[in-house]
Amino acid sequence: MPANLTPQYLKAEEAYRRATTLEEELRCLQWMLAEIPKHKGTDHLQAAIKAKIAKTKRELEAEKKSGKKTRSFRIPRQGAGTAVIIGGPNAGKSQLLATLTRATPEIADYPFTTKVPLPGMMPYEDVMIQLVDTPPITADFCEPYMYGLIRSADLVLLLVDLGSDDGIEHCQAILNRLNQTKTRLARKSYLDEDDLGLSYTQTFLVPNKIDLPEARDRLELLHELLPVDFPEYVISAKTREGLDVLQKAIFEALDIVRVYTKHPAQKEPDLDRPFTLRRGSTLLDLAALIHNDYVKKLKFGRVWGSAVHPGTQVKGDYVLQDKDIVELHI
Known about the structure:
Elements: H1 7-18, H2 22-35, H3 43-66, E1 82-87, H4 93-100, E2 118-124, E3 127-133, H5 146-152, E4 155-161, H6 167-179, E5 183-186, E6 190-192, E7 195-208, H7 215-225, H8 243-254, E8 256-261, E9 275-278, H9 283-290, H10 292-297, E10 300-304, E11 312-314, E12 324-329
Parallel strand pairs: 1-3, 1-4, 4-7, 5-7, 8-12
Antiparallel strand pairs: 2-3, 6-7, 8-9, 10-11, 10-12
Helix pairs in contact: 1-2, 2-3
């Protein structure tokens, strides 16, 4: 019997995948249990959620008794979405962050320069996207907080060093290490319904330093030795080769719509700072983003966009389109 999971449940599931603390996990699990359709097709999933709730409560209790947070490193989400940059030693993660944002990480030709995650904001058209530089992952070590950063990201950029014969080996070591955990990389983000702790995050393979000698030979070798199923974007973070294509792909991978708002008393909308929402979001989702009271008080909206006639009156379930101009009436 099919599960027929509702949009509300899927939103709760997505929030759970992005949770960075045990408290957030528990709230999202309880939200998932409240929203899941109750029928025979979801019996197994309901049982898994209940078991996970019980386990998370035990972990929270143990955390309170010990006084130690199990996930102590958090970076507040900003902008239209978050892409976490990971890679082996000297893969060029900090150079990529510095080139695409105004962040000023330490950049050097020796490995392990980055000690802690560092965020920066990448402009793309009229939105800002958060990029996060991270310490290297090796066969022997990965900072414990890295798993939470990867799970909660919208996208992972897996950099491969084409300037070194060790680059492919380092990349394989990262994949091997993550595949031994419940935080894994994939072509798209999702939770394993048979194991709610097992999370997959959408990933781009980003071979870097294509400008260096022998880099193209190493790229061919990468394709032979590491046939992963991730979209690939070959770049040079230093010379900017391929970065325009990568930036566009990052934006499109977020799968968002931009919505501009207009006050009923004004003739022109605010086109400088659009609201960004997941594709498939509704007028009510926009209202909730602006203010919780708007959800209760919303009467209707007027929309100017590609899917409707100018100024069309719509209800709360209207599905927003990219670059819609919306006027809320409460």
